[in-house]
Amino acid sequence: MSDQSTPPSVEPALPGREPILLAAFEGWNDAGSAASQALEHLHEVWDAEQIDELDPEEYHDFQVNRPVIGLNAAGDREITWPSTAIAVATAPRTGRQVVLVHGIEPSMRWRRYCGELLEIAAGLHTGTVITLGALLADVPHTRPIPVTVTSEDRAVRQLLDVESNSYEGPTGIVGVLQHEAAARQLRTLSLWAAVPHYVAHPPSPKAVLALLHRIEELIGEPIPLGDLPEDAAAWQDGVDELAGEDSEIAEYVRQLEEAKDTADLPEASGEAIAQEFERYLRRRDKGLGG
Predict the structure, then answer these.
(1) DSSP secondary structure letter of residue 164
(2) What sections of 54-128 are H helices per DSSP?
(3) In a 3-state reduction of DSSP, which class is residue 152?
(4) Phi, psi angles (nearest 5°) of residue 191
(5) Given this model, what pLDDT does residue 66 score?
(6) What is the pTM of this model?
(7) d(CA 257, CA 273)
(8) For position 280, what pLDDT does the model report?
(9) C-alpha closest to that of 114 among 23, 45, 222
(10) Residues 222-244, buried b or exposed e (16+ Cβ, 10 A)?
(11) In the chain, what's the furthest Cα-to-Cα distance?
């Protein structure tokens, strides 16, 4: 999947040179597995190296997230435990260090869990924490996947012109990690992709692409996409086919499309269209995919 092309220049929305932490967690925060698969993609294309791992004994109920037994590469039986891995990559163009945190939402001791992650981040001199999530929503699969970007940091909101998070209610581990990171005076950002609820099962490559595009914009590092654009197109074609076989679903999708198009009309500015076209041209010229 790795692409050896020289990436085009993209100005980062987040200035500075200090490391950035990106975190995604499987489970409640990860509709369609979009957030965790986006992080896995970054790990692969940036050749990230795992540097640490949290002890699952402290944070997981193994009757909820059971260990898996199987054969390893040597043919020996081994047990793989649910865990949280911390890896480090160097963004190829900017040279900026990126810390990748990928785990399963823990069952217990969330404050201690977040504290341990943030201590590791502090040891790596991380300045910004970006959490990735995905939720099920009333959005059509035929339109661009919305990605909401919010921050509890006033300076970040002013810099990026994003809103604070107005959600109130039960939260997942990404919400707790954001809160704890902000309490430690780290810059924080939260990215959430909206996955069509009628195609909730993973994979959701179109949502993965949407998250990766926003990460590109934030850190100024074009991401090789490999087969993802083709996978996203095939996913949409497959859902089109399923909808075509069920008149009720087809009508529901049409209603979602109308609602989405109406809501987006004020945003369809010439500037937004020009930015999207420029990104397409950069990728075409450099062979990075769609």
Answers:
(1) P
(2) 110-123
(3) coil
(4) -115, 125
(5) 93
(6) 0.84
(7) 19
(8) 54
(9) 23
(10) bbbbbebbebbeebeeebeeebe
(11) 60
Cis status, amide bond into 8, omega within 30 of 0: no
Q: How many angstroms separate the CA atoms of 244 and 218, rounded?
A: 37
User: Please, are residues 90 and 96 in contact by the beta-carbon 8 Å criterion?
Assistant: yes
End-to-end CA distance of the chain: 14
Are 160 and 153 a contacting pair, CB within 8 Å? no
Six token digits for residue 114: 């977040």
Q: Which helix (H) or strand (E) holds 103?
A: strand 97-104
For residue 187, the SS3 value is strand
Q: Residue 166 carries which DSSP code? A: -
Residue 140 CA: distances (Å) to CA of 129, 154, 165, 194, 207:
30, 32, 23, 10, 12
Element counts in the chain: helices (H) and strands (E): 8, 9
pLDDT on residue 8: 45
pLDDT confidence of residue 246 = 85
CA 147: distance to chain centroid?
9
Helix 205-219 vs helix 34-45: angle between axes, to the nearest 10 degrees? Answer: 60
Instruction: Give yes or no for a contact between 129 and 26, defined as CB atoms under 8 angstroms apart.
Output: no
Q: What DSSP state is assigned to residue 202?
A: S
| Contact partners, residue 228, CB within 8 Å, separation at least 6 | 41, 205, 208, 209, 212, 289
Rounded CA separation 95/102 (Å): 21
Distance CA 54, CA 67 (A): 15
Contact present, 193 and 146 (Cβ < 8 Å): yes
Classified as helix, coil or strand, 233 is helix
Q: Supply 11's token pair.
A: 């100005």
Question: With a cut of 70, which residues of the chain have pLDDT below it?
Answer: 1-12, 265-290
Contacts of 173 by beta carbon, 8 Å cutoff, 6+ apart? 25, 27, 28, 29, 105, 106, 110, 113, 114
Tokens of 261: 């198009």
